[in-house]
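User: Before I run my own analysis I want an independent prediction to cross-check against. Here's the chain; please return only the structure tokens and, at the end, one sentence I can use as a sanity check.
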Amino acid sequence: TTAYSTNNSAKWTLEYNSGAGSFTLTLGTKFLTMGGVAPVVSTSASAKDILKFETDSAGNHLLVDHLKAYA
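Assistant: Structure tokens:
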């Protein structure tokens, strides 16, 4: 479980480290993505994904970029 906090109309970044691998990321209902499809994060051991979000005035978190297996 990853906790987050933002202010309205904010830009923020989530760094997701897979550790030993084979984990999944589940987003809450306030997260909006292109086509309503949650991002698929890297599953290989020690992979790092960077997810960039913007929070709108209604408190929705919009996924604006996803860098997979970032090193």
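Sanity check: The longest strand covers residues 61-70.
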